[in-house]
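FAQ: What does the model actually see?

It sees only this:
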Amino acid sequence: MTEFAYFYRGYERPASPEEMQQKTAKWMAWLKDLSDKGYVKSLGEPLQAGGKVIRGAKKQVVDGPYAEAKDVVGGYSIILASDLEEAVKFSLGCPIFEDGGSVEVRAIGQPG
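And it is asked to produce this:
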């Protein structure tokens, strides 16, 4: 099995606590299903909105990341799959798509 990172982009914050509970339940059900089947190495964590970005040879430190909401990575998970196609297939059940978000699927480690 190969490890794949799922990077969740474009997640919209729920408008109410009730909506947050509903969305969280959907995410947990999806991840539990994958976990019960042995495909989750790490559930991951949501990422805080702010941070710092260090750029260039001069190592300039700036506030960030600043990007359009749809491009900001809001969280991640580590998934086990036989290949990229299987990892993509597993991502299709992610509730982020209901909000117009996306999942970036990337293999971890050296190609080969």
